[in-house]
Write a structure and sequence with these properties.
It contains 15 helices and 16 strands. By secondary structure, it is α+β, with helices and mostly antiparallel strands. Helix 1 packs antiparallel against helix 5. The longest helix has 17 residues.
Length: about 425
């Protein structure tokens, strides 16, 4: 019988690699907490309607990439393709906004999209997301961007570039859409089939299409930033002044529109040149209309998402060395069968005292046990046999420099030696 393999577009994180994820997640959690954001957790699947209304039925995500099925009750269910809509749904359903504003939360969660697997983007990928609700001020935009800038620098990604743009609001966007349609209609027959369907309902999605032909046509299209109303212009100018004042470098990139329908005003991306063609490691912006569209109060909101797989690729490309943790503090080897029976209780007491301790459970020779201790990176080792047990004393060896310490055979004494 053939062995079972992981589904295409998914990837195992093996014990030898998981420390990198733990390090990355630790930096993300610590940075978010220092900026006043608290963790939210939500279901892996939602009612499909949430994403139709929240993400937008003209997006590639909804049209092509969602994992959607009917459950046993006949309800249409989708695996979560992104975290913002789930966050908003949860906060509305649990009346969190009524407790006071702003609401600031973050999540680290898997998302699911049926697309061609590529470097840093799998069908199951993991995202760090940050969401902030209640503030219409450009200061909130600057805070969100500065959070992303901070964690990227802490990860050693100092060469990543920040690109910003403004795509306007419901007041100025209709005029921009008119200008965009006027430009695109002569090229309608050349557009891909998907973009032909978008032309009337949401022409800005054409600018985000991955088709080479659509990209070439979009290159000469009118820019959203050229059609901003006075309020949107002042909002964007104020954001730029704050970024300048805070020493956060950026460039204006009029090609950024983001791939989801709920974005308004500020949009931004942090881009790396070290992970191939798909170089965005963090992207986000404002979505002031989303909360109201999902049944909540009309409320300004903004946030970003950053893929963990992409961050790890960028760190690797930048030559960032993630420190390997010492997973085993003390390895206790058994020189004979009598000692083997005694060691189990000592190891248990050490673990209960907060010391990571290991022993042999395969009946290996002493030589093989010591090779195993070296392979698992034990900081210290001690060999116990009949002689040591009779004397009540053993020698604890530092595995890195060979220095030995005589020690009473008890969990308390061993813990004291290896904790120095």
């Amino acid at each position: 019988m053939a062995s079972v393999t992981a589904p295409k577009g998914t990837k195992d994180v093996l014990p030898e690699e998981s420390y990198k994820w733990q390090y990355l997640e630790g930096v993300l959690r610590r940075t978010a907490a220092e900026f006043g954001f608290r963790e939210i957790r939500f279901p892996t699947f939602e009612h499909t309607e949430l994403f139709l209304r929240g993400v937008g039925d003209t997006t590639d995500v909804v049209q092509k990439e969602m994992y959607t099925f009917n459950d046993k009750g006949g309800r249409s269910i989708s695996l979560r393709p992104e975290g913002t809509a789930s966050t908003v749904r949860s906060l509305i359903e649990n009346s969190v906004f009524a407790a006071g504003l702003p609401v600031k939360c973050f999540y680290i969660a898997p998302n699911f999209r049926y697309e061609k697997p590529q470097a840093g983007r799998l069908r199951e990928h993991h995202q760090f997301g940050v969401e902030m609700f209640g503030s219409p001020s450009p200061s909130a935009d600057a805070e969100i961007i500065s959070l992303a800038d901070t964690f990227l620098r802490r990860l050693g990604l100092n060469e990543i570039e920040l690109h910003i743009n403004s795509i306007g609001c419901p007041n100025c966007r209709p005029k921009y859409y008119d200008a965009l349609r006027e430009y695109l209609k002569p090229h309608a027959a050349e557009l891909c089939e998907t973009c032909q369907g978008r032309l009337e309902k949401n022409p800005m999605r054409v600018l985000d299409c991955k088709s080479p032909i659509c990209k070439e046509i979009a290159a000469g299209a009118p820019k959203a930033i050229e059609h901003l109303c006075d309020d949107c212009r002042e909002h964007f100018d104020s954001l730029r002044r704050q970024l300048d004042d805070w020493g956060i470098k950026y460039s204006i990139d009029t090609s950024i529109v983001r791939g989801l329908d709920y974005y308004t005003n500020t949009v931004f991306e942090f881009i790396s040149n070290g992970i191939g063609a798909q170089g965005t490691v963090c992207g986000g912006g404002r979505y002031n209309g989303l909360v109201g569209s999902l049944g909540g109060p009309e409320m300004p909101a903004l946030g970003f998402g950053s893929g963990l797989e992409r961050l790890l690729l960028a760190m690797e490309g930048a030559g960032v060395e993630i420190p390997k943790p010492h997973t085993t503090k003390l390895f206790i080897a058994a020189a004979d069968a009598e000692a083997s029976e005694k060691i189990g209780k000592i190891v248990l007491d050490l673990r209960r005292a907060g010391i990571s301790a290991e022993r042999d459970t395969l009946g290996r020779s002493l030589k093989a046990q010591m090779k195993y201790a070296d392979r698992i990176g034990a900081e210290y080792s001690v060999v116990l046999g009949g002689n040591e047990l009779a004397a009540g004393v053993a020698k604890v060896k530092n595995m890195s420099d060979g220095e030995s310490f005589e020690c009473e055979i008890s969990a308390e004494a061993l813990a004291a030696v290896v904790s120095k």
